[in-house]
Input
Amino acid sequence: MTVAPLSTAFRSLVGLGGVFTSAKSFEDNPVLSSRWLNQAGLHAARVTWAHRVAVSRRARLAHLVSAEDRAAFARDGYVLKRDFVPDFAALLAEVRSYRTAAREMIQGDTLTRKIALDRAALAAMPALRTLVESEAWRNLLAYIGGMTARPVQFIQTIATHINNSDPDPQTYFHADTFHPAMKAWLFLNDIAGDVPPFTFVPGSHRLTPARLEWERQQALIAAQARDEHTRQGSFRIDAAALAAMRLPEPAQFRVKANTLIVADTFGFHARGPSAAPAMRVEIWAYGRRAPFFPAPPRLPWPFGADSYRPRAAVSAFDPA
Output
């Protein structure tokens, strides 16, 4: 007779603890999804608090990057660097020849393959190790991520139109989570033709009054949203809502290989659509943890990828 009430109480207690972490799922957390609490300002308070912390963290790391990069990031929400790796040919040759176990996931009609840049991978690819240990790479990622902990890093392959399923859900504009976060893409092939470009709405990383109100409204309906990613806290947004916030047109990055983009993925972004099968290969990194504390943990991230299926002896450039 008391199992259900105890279960509900336990979920509520766990959910309350999640308020003070990076937890973002509205369908899994009864506290985060509470309409009453969000009407009272819970989600808006979490968003505001996390952004204030991010501003403070970045201020302490500002010395790591140039004034030009700081200005570009403040204006746009991303920094773009062309011809980033001095010996790009050596790095590309290493990645092309490296074969190891990988993990893959299919979303809609698109496959994502990840090869973890663990100790074994970096030992086998010295040019790649030089990149991820360089100050140019580490400092820019640290500044935009607001943390000095080593980010999660992979060789990532995106292969489009591998089946006749629904469109890739990552082609819809979205924010990854409720707080500032970092992702980086160093493209290993030209982003041209049908290769899906990274797309970002410039300036959408800023927490304006209009954005905060939109966040508040989304929190009231997220738990019942039809889109599973919105229910899990990665809010999707359409063109009308972007226009209502007076945001500029999205920028599509059709760039040459050896271009690096580091962005705050609280900003609205998407994977550009492709009309025909194509493949994008990149060095990909992300950093997202402890959004409410001035000094986040410096420990390395684990390489967990529970939603991915294993695949043995594969190269990043192998077909899907």
Observations:
- The chain has a mean pLDDT of 92.
